[in-house]
# Entry
Amino acid sequence: MSNQKEKTTAQAAGMNRAKPYQLVLFPMNNGATNVYYILTMNFIAYYANGVLGLALMFATTMVTVMRLFDAVTDPIIGALIDRTNSKFGKFRPYMVIGNVIMIVSSILLYFGTRIIAPDMQWLRYACFVLFYALYVIGYTFQTACTRSGQTCLTNDPKQRPMFTIFNTIASLIGMGLVQFLAPILGDRLGGYNSANFFDFMIPLAIVVSAVLTLLAVIGIWEKDRPEFFGVGNKQEKVKLKEYVAILKANKELQRLMVAGAGCKLAFSIATNMTVLCMLYGAMMGDYGGLYLPMMIVGYIFSVPFFLLTVKTSQKHGQKASLVRYTMLALVMYIGVLVLLLLWNQGVPAFNLSLRSINVYTVLFVLFFGIGYGAYYATADMPIPMVADCSDYETYRSGQYVPGIMGTLFSLVDKLVSSLGSTIVGAAVAMIGIQTLPDSKTPYSSGMHGVVLILFCIVPMIAWLATLWAMKGYTLTGARMKEIQAVNAVRKHAVSEGMSLEEAMEKWKTYEDVPEEFRQE
# Structure
């Protein structure tokens, strides 16, 4: 009886709640794209440089160049999503089409380019760029739906934070699988610069990503319908030039862009394979004994933080959770930085080793584990917060434009995260290394300073940017409840025949909302 009453109250208030299986399956879309993301961010430079023989700086810089290409594709694809309302839904077509494009482009990029004769190197360069660009289009098609699709999946403030947990689980299935298998297969198949490594990893990525995409489509199937889109029954065609005005007016999205970019930059550099090869292999001298165990340590420490972030988000809002645990990560990484400053090659007391435990190792595991757990739990938190910004835009202007909201956020997110590979490539080149270090690369002069900067200082600066951006972010948990209530009463009025303009004029603040539409 109480469940029925709760359901009726939620429906009256315009509450759109997802079923448990929907909350679990839809984030698999992010897992599907992250399979390709980790391969591209961490290994495509190895392929271009080691297998195709392309210049090192070209290989690492192309990651950033292609993210700049996203500056064009992101808003265009976001606009297409907002204008789409097919029998197959608004989001599902782009999820499926995007995955198919990535399958085709990956085959061409990692296998087709090798068919080109070495004496036609110019053609290898040209095809590498072309096939990489095709991959970017497919990736943007699918990844844009992760952010924008949440708006129709649920608007319950208690459910949205749970997306972070299931999104991480999905990422671990996809991205984590690649991260775990890469060092094992790299040793057995000739290293990250070998063709054999990619002969195994690319088909595996294609299969895993396709399965995760299918699960995500099932997850959003029932919610990918017009009745879950925005306030009005009819979706207006928003012109491209109006998106500039939307971004300019939506200060919350601007701040979230900065915060999200900071989180992603910290994550992409601190987990970059080249950086970890220099840290665990060249400096500490035991890549095989440290990389996977330290990754496991990070994941183990992450578990309680995921539970804490959800609890904090449900009680105080997602902003409070992001700020609290980003601050903790920043404090812990000060400890990591100090330990790396004390590192002394050849002195066991000042080296990380899991084979012979010392005080240095214990402190490193604690500082790194807590810091990694805190920031890994918040790394994807800005994604569900995009849905809050989209609902705020509906409240502010009446426009339901989740596609452009998601891709505007994604644009900055991708541009900044792509800097990771370029920064790493430039740093390595500056100390005179011509080939990206792998697990077998010996220590050379300059690596210590590079690791200090890339593993600690750059992420810490990124976290400071996140904290600064969140200082003026107003979409707290309490504020989102008010926004959802206003949107709910407007949507009800429009469904009863009132125009959207009249509804927006009549109900402007939470105080205007009738009691039955207020969310407790």
